[in-house]
Amino acid sequence: MAVVRDLRVLLRFRNFRRLLAVRLLSQGADGVYQVGLATYVVFSPERQTSPVEIASAMAVLLLPYSLVGPFAGVLLDRWRRRQVFLYGNLLRALLASATALLMISQVPDWLFYVSALCVTAVNRFVLAGLSAALPRVVDEDRLVMANSLSPTAGTLAATAGGGLAFLVRLVFADSDAAVVLVGAALYLCSALASLRIGRELLGPDRTLVPRRLGPALTGTARDLVAGLRHLTAPARREAAWALASMTLMRFCYGALTVMLLMLCRYAFSANTDDGLALLGLVVGVSGAGFFVAAVLTPWAAGRFGPGRWIVLCAAFAAVLEPALGLPFAIGPTLVAAFVLGLTTQGAKISTDTLVQSAVDDGFRGRVFSLYDVLFNVAFVAAAGVAALMLPPDGRSVPLVLTVAVIYGLVAATMARFARQ
Questions:
Q1: Residue 147: strand, helix, or coil
Q2: Domain extents in the chain
Q3: How far apart are CA 374 and CA 121, in angstroms?
Q4: How high is the pLDDT of residue 66?
Q5: DSSP 191-220
Q6: What is the pTM of this model?
Q7: Secondary structure E strands in 96-202
Q8: Interacting residues of 352 by C-beta distance below 8 A, sequence separation 6+
Q9: For 10-419, CATH number?
């Protein structure tokens, strides 16, 4: 099969394998850490979590990315990306250990959120750097396949990390602190794995960017405007449209995530343990959708083009999301989770490919940091909208229909652009 053959060729790139190992360990740790946070905030028996509280937690953890993200881009276009992976993961291992200590201590909630925020803020540098470095370890002909395998494998690693977190909670008597410590250990392993990559291999090209850091930081706004202009130039307009469409799909994903948390916590289960087990099953099914997207997208993007594949993913979600979500039953919800994983990851792979192919290496760090900012703002905005629309048990027909309309608008807009 063509996909298997291309995968075999891609995995022969030694430095791609090494970069992939860093991603797998890092995002596996993210999965462990995020489940530890989610179970502590949402599924603790002593807490009666509401949609507003979930949205507030997401805002605390994600909105500051809008401040960190632009600086991450400027720095990633000047720092050695290998060093970002090394020191970033070492710092996260230390901060995650501090989070675990706070979980078992009598401290104010705001202090716990500050610690968690620091871990996730560093994550912006690592994930943006992984995307920006990918074209440095594969040739242009394999970039679509690399974008299918690498980010999707990272998502699957995060899903596996979530499963590991559930297992750790069983072994250590529902200890969220133990889960977070396992995540810290995986961050440390990712840092060590990055040492196998050459310091200069992942870029950026030192001849394309200024060497002095001070002027770079003071000129952040000017550099970001330059990156935005670079992305929206006529030759790169398709990539800009794809990025806007992916932002709206991320909004849909965020709204459905909050609804799903509330359904698992209250509507579909009698207690927190059953709700957490159901959430783990849903995450696994969604991960299967990510895997299918990784296999299917290279063929689909090659046959239809990345832009038209985004159209098909959005249209598919617009039809199936309300059909499966409106019954508010466990079985259809599991199928909907699979569809959501498939369509979201399929569109993201295509968007990553369009952006990476269109953007010059000297601008990739800034553009992917803008990409991350849009992602996080859209996710938090979706959580806020969901908090206003969701009832206490999570069942909301208006929210399901609103998301379906947005998917439909994305499909129609991208289809019109593709025809032009």
A1: helix
A2: 10-419
A3: 15
A4: 67
A5: HHHHTTS-TTTT---TTTS-S-HHHHHHTH
A6: 0.73
A7: none
A8: 131, 147, 151
A9: 1.20.1250.20
